[in-house]
Amino acid sequence: MNQTVHLNKPKRDVRSAETREGLPIAGRQLRPQARYVYITYPKSWEYVEGYGFLPVLKRIVAKPGANGVGRNGNVSRAVASAVEMGATYIDPKDSRLGEFQDYVRYYDCDTGARWYVDFSQEATILPGGEIIWNSAEANAEVIKFRAHLRDNQIVPGLAAGVYLWLLNRERNRHRNVSSRSGLNPHLTAQADALEVRIKAMETEWERMQSGAIAKANKDGTARKPRRKIAEVD
Fold this sequence. Notes:
Blueprint: E1 36-40, E2 45-48, E3 52-55, E4 58-61, H1 76-84, E5 88-90, E6 104-108, E7 114-118, E8 123-125, E9 131-133, H2 135-151, H3 160-181, H4 187-219
Antiparallel strand pairs: 1-4, 1-5, 2-3, 6-7, 8-9
Helix pairs in contact: 3-4
């Protein structure tokens, strides 16, 4: 440059000392959650009060080298392996997901990394940099997501054999707690709660079966009722 240049319009710095850009993890013992997708297995069900039987979701995390995940974090092989073992893959792009489509979201971190979260997770950053997550509220929204998967047949329905396995597991827990409640009176309340839960599970299964029969009659595909499935421990 062989001539004098005069600069007289400095740009404004719109940031302040308090401005944060992303989750504060620089210099902290925090490891951002990696990207993941959900799968569920035929046996992965549980009874949730107020919602009935819901599929239990498991994560395939895009951690290179784990469960067949590629070096670039590609989960295709891991998903294919899980599907071969009977899992159902919850494709984030499935249009049937509706409002839950692209269920995995992320927050930027101040290191440039990404912290992957469920669609319902919110973070509150305190002045000292501590991160507080809205865990209870986020979990409540995930339960609605699981109910959506069931109600829209995105996952296969609960099999009778799996229902009996869940029911008998609760019955065994009830017997175990009841047998100890005499020596430990405080367990009486727990045994009573389990008894109520078992009754609710039975009622919900009956409701599901009635609904299935009604739908079959409406569609003209009703079959002769099968004999009651034997209950085994």
